[in-house]
Structure to design on (104 residues):
């Protein structure tokens, strides 16, 4: 993923980003999400404050991708804010780009 983002670096400038992570373990990819936050910021992206973490994934989502158990309930509660934050920044970025080109 890092190689891909580096290859298309300029495509990411002045774009909003939201981080969703998961893992088989209980930390739900939180360490990777923390690392990506700084990386994406250095690439010129605005990283929204809301994050989504799902883990252990097998106890959070079914094989069909449906929320299950307590982890699934937590995911369902967290997702609306995550989506709203990301949508707000997408709309803000579009409006600003229409008003003025990014500085680089």
């Amino acid at each position: 993923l890092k190689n891909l983002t580096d290859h298309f670096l300029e495509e990411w400038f002045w774009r909003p980003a939201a981080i969703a992570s998961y893992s088989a373990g209980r930390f739900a990819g939180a360490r990777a999400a923390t690392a990506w936050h700084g990386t994406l910021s250095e690439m010129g992206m605005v990283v929204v404050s809301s994050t989504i973490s799902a883990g252990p994934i097998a106890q959070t989502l079914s094989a069909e991708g449906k929320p299950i158990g307590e982890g699934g309930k937590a995911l369902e509660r967290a997702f609306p804010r995550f989506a709203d934050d990301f949508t707000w920044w997408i709309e803000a970025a579009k409006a600003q780009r229409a008003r003025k080109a990014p500085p680089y």
